[in-house]
Amino acid sequence: MQLNREHINEADVTERQEEDAAFMVKLTGNTLLEIELGKLAQARAHTPVARQYGTRLVQSKLELLQSLRGLAAAKRLAVPAALSDDEQAAFHEVSSLSGPRLDQKVLALVIKTHKQDEDALDEMRDDAYDGDIRGLAAKYLPPLREQLATAEEIADEVDALP
Fold first, then answer.
1. Which residue numbers delimit the DUF4142 domain (predicted)?
2. Measuring CA to CA, how many Å separate 143 from each of 56, 137, 138, 155?
3. Treating both helix axes as pointing N-terminal to C-terminal, what angle do 48-75 and 2-44 enclose, rounded to 10 degrees?
4. Nearest to residue 107, comparing CAs of 23, 28, 16, 46?
5. Does the pTM exceed 0.70?
6. Residues 116, 91: Cα–Cα separation, whole Å
7. What DSSP string runs through 7-41?
């Protein structure tokens, strides 16, 4: 029985470590996409408020990306260096638009990824196996919530435009 208990505990650790790694990969992928969306908004958004949000988004996400890459390197985890095929497809779909429609779609995609990030960060700040990953999640959850609220406000503004 003792051997079974030890085996189960080792399996739990492995599963939790895999969840930590999956979290890091997903958050890095979303962060890369959000950076590209922010750059797109900076360059081509129809409304000044969306362009300004794009600038702030890029700045905050570059900081997060640097933290993710540093932590991944320290933990010997592989994280994406570029957008996945799905992320590239989503970005391409949005980048083919112009005018108010571009602003709406950029903000909608940012809100979608922010909500995914919020759920993941909220879960991992308590449940991550690795303490450093819990710390990263706890550090970046409050600013992410602020960014999400701002994106939702701007999306409402853009949707209300004629």
1. 19-154
2. 12, 11, 10, 18
3. 150
4. 46
5. yes
6. 17
7. HHHHHHHHHHHHHHHHHHHHHHHHHHHHHHHHHHH
d(CA 52, CA 4): 57
Q: Which residues of the chain have pLDDT under 70?
A: 1-13
Distance (Å, rounded) from C-alpha 115 to C-alpha 23?
A: 14
Kindly give, in sequence order, each residue whose CB lies less than 8 Å from that of residue 96, ignoring residues fewer than 6 positions away. Answer: none
Domain ranges within the chain, ordered by starting residue: 2-160
Q: Give the distance from CA 35 to its chain's centroid.
A: 9
**What single-letter amino acid sits at 40?**
L
pLDDT at res. 128: 95
Query: Which residue's entry shows tokens 């470590």?
Result: 17
DSSP letter at 78 equals -
Residue 122 CA, distance from chain mean position: 12
Tell me if the domain spanning 2-160 has CATH number 3.40.50.720.
Answer: no
